[in-house]
Structure formats: C-alpha cells, structure tokens
Description:
The chain is an alpha+beta fold.
Amino acid sequence: xxxxxxxxxxxxxxxxxxxRGGAPHKLLPNLKKFLDTFWKERDTFGEYIDTPExxxxxxxxxxxxxxxxxxxxxxxxxIHYKATADYLYQxxxxxxxxxxxxxxxxxxxxxxxxxxxxxxxxxxxQLSEPIDQSR
Length: 135
C-alpha cells in the first residue's frame, strides 16, 4: 500500500507532498542519507545562506527522481497540508528529523498541521555533526 507523506523544512513555508513511498522504513534511510550528504557539503564549503530554500529544492529533486519514476505528478510542492498524508517528516535546521503520524483529526482538518499528528517515535534522528574546520 502506498503511503503518502509531507516533508516540512524548518523556516520554509513550502510543504513537499509525495503520494507514495512515505512509510518510515522506506523513506527515512534515503532521507537520512541525503541529509547527511547535504550537511557535510554545507559544512565543507561553509555555505549556510538560504539553507531552508536549498533543502526544499534539493529534497524535491532527490525524492522526485527516487519515488516518482516516470510520473512526476506523484510529488508536489505547495503551502497547504494534504488530508491524505499518512506521515509528516519535519526536518530541523539543528539536523534532526522528526517523524509524525497523521491522526484522524489531521485527516479531517489538515490545516492543523503537526498539531493534528502523533509523534511516531520518541527518538529523533540526529544527523551528522558539523565538520570541525579548525583542524
């Protein structure tokens, strides 16, 4: 069964929506690997301007190619939550990913956003630490 999802990046109003492949066991490994590389590149080059914007753009491209195959209507970017989303992935600028499960309240009123969701796990996924550039 396809699981739809949202990816929400801190400090960016855009909301990524994918119609399939959103179950944590499928999406998290790819998201964590992508984010680990993203943060390492940012640290290596010392580039931190527009990080929320870059994250949304690059996640959209990465997951567009990874999950949509030839049908790019399966991934969208907008500013409204979709009632059909099963999981919501919150990407923090502190390099954490928090996974939320949409509740019945969310499905009835998606404008509730994360307030209408239940924390999927008590453990957040901590991504790689910044590279120590003093060495």
